[in-house]
């Protein structure tokens, strides 16, 4: 028994074909939007690639770009099919290809849904890659004379200013690394010598942060050095006073930005997926309604369209049997090939 059977007359078939034609061209526009979102996301990730530990995060924008291109191609073709569907002469050339085309559309819809799902699941991957990338970037902050790293100071400073953040998890991360280049240290100074000697790795560590951590909204002039030394500043207690630095770490700031962006892209992709599924279902009804016409030469005759020729369990059973037959056929061919290559006795 056919699943979700619907009776069509000529008027309904014409309306269905015209509606699908319009929806396909709307879906072409949606494909362009998906392509644009993927491109925008890729550019945004590339902007901060210096503070990201790997390139795995580019899988989602690359997939969106690919899905956008495929959406434009498939829906342009489907629009042409719907346009030709009500002309028997033109429809005849599409008839042998329509069923395989519908199968490809189903696979495309599955892939598009998985890409939309990946948009929501990218947060975990981004969190780890930002944690390692920012940590490494902060280590190279002082290497302004090293080829390949001379831009890192500017990158980190602009990042902290733009996202109003400081350090990886917070401003105290800067206390654990030497972010001032040896080029700007006076090694004849007793203070510098004592600080370097007091550190096992011979690094110059200070309880200070770069200028880009300063919060300009604070009424007090920025305190960026000797942050834990209360006696170094007038009327100051670092444990109770609200510091005039950005409190939030850059990992949390970037993660929040990219998560909101990915959630928006994922929601748009899901809406496009719903449109694609609706078009695929409509094409299936149009295909079966045209195939079911008792007299193709009489356009006014009634016909029946359906989603599946059999019920869901029967369709699934038939699919599994066809897969088994295909597997057995390949096994027989392999055995036949091995027998043909067997050596003959002299």
UniProtKB/TrEMBL annotation:
What GO molecular functions are on record for this protein? protein homodimerization activity
Q: What is its main location?
A: membrane
Q: Which domain of life is it from?
A: Eukaryota
- Topological type in the membrane: Multi-pass membrane protein
Cellular localization per UniProt: Membrane; Photoreceptor inner segment
> What Gene3D superfamilies does the annotation carry?
Tetraspanin
Q: Could you provide one GO biological process annotation from this protein's UniProt record?
A: cell adhesion
Q: Does the keyword NADP apply?
A: no
User: Which residue ranges does UniProt annotate as crossing the membrane?
Assistant: 20-41, 101-122, 261-286
**Has keyword tRNA processing?**
no
Q: Keyword set for this entry?
A: Cell adhesion, Disulfide bond, Glycoprotein, Membrane, Sensory transduction, Transmembrane, Transmembrane helix, Vision
Q: Which GO terms describe its cellular component?
A: photoreceptor inner segment; photoreceptor outer segment; plasma membrane
What does the protein in this record do? Answer: Essential for retina photoreceptor outer segment disk morphogenesis, may also play a role with ROM1 in the maintenance of outer segment disk structure. Required for the maintenance of retinal outer nuclear layer thickness. Required for the correct development and organization of the photoreceptor inner segment.
Q: Which family does it belong to?
A: Belongs to the PRPH2/ROM1 family.
Protein known as: Peripherin-2
């Amino acid at each position: 028994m056919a699943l979700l059977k619907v009776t069509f007359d000529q008027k309904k078939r014409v309306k269905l074909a015209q509606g699908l034609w319009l929806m396909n061209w709307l879906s072409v526009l949606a494909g362009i939007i998906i392509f644009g979102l993927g491109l925008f996301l890729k550019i945004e990730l590339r902007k901060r690639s210096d503070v990201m530990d790997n390139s795995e995060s580019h899988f989602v924008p690359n997939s969106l770009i690919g899905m956008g291109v495929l959406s434009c191609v498939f829906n342009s073709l489907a629009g042409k099919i719907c346009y030709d569907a009500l002309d028997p002469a033109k429809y005849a050339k599409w008839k042998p290809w329509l069923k395989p085309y519908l199968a490809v559309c189903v696979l495309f819809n599955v892939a598009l849904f998985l890409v939309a799902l990946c948009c929501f699941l990218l947060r975990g991957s981004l969190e780890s890659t930002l944690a390692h990338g920012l940590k490494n970037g902060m280590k190279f902050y002082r290497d302004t004379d090293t080829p390949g790293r001379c831009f890192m100071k500017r990158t980190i400073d602009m990042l902290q200013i733009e996202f109003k953040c400081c350090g990886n998890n917070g401003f105290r991360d800067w206390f654990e690394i030497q972010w001032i280049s040896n080029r700007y240290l006076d090694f004849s100074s007793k203070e510098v010598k004592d600080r370097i000697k007091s550190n096992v790795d011979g690094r110059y560590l200070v309880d200070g942060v770069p200028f880009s951590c300063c919060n300009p909204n604070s009424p007090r002039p920025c305190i960026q050095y000797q942050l834990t030394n209360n006696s170094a500043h007038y009327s100051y207690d670092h444990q109770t006073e609200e510091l005039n630095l950005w409190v939030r770490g850059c990992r949390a700031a970037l993660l929040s930005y990219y998560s909101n962006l990915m959630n928006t892209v994922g929601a748009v992709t899901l809406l496009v997926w719903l449109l694609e599924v609706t078009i695929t279902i409509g094409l299936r009804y149009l295909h079966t309604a045209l195939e079911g016409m008792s007299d193709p030469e009489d356009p006014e005759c009634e016909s029946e369209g359906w989603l599946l020729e059999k019920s869901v369990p029967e369709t699934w059973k038939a699919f599994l049997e066809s897969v088994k037959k295909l597997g057995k056929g390949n096994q027989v061919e392999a055995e036949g090939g091995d027998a043909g290559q067997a050596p003959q006795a002299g």
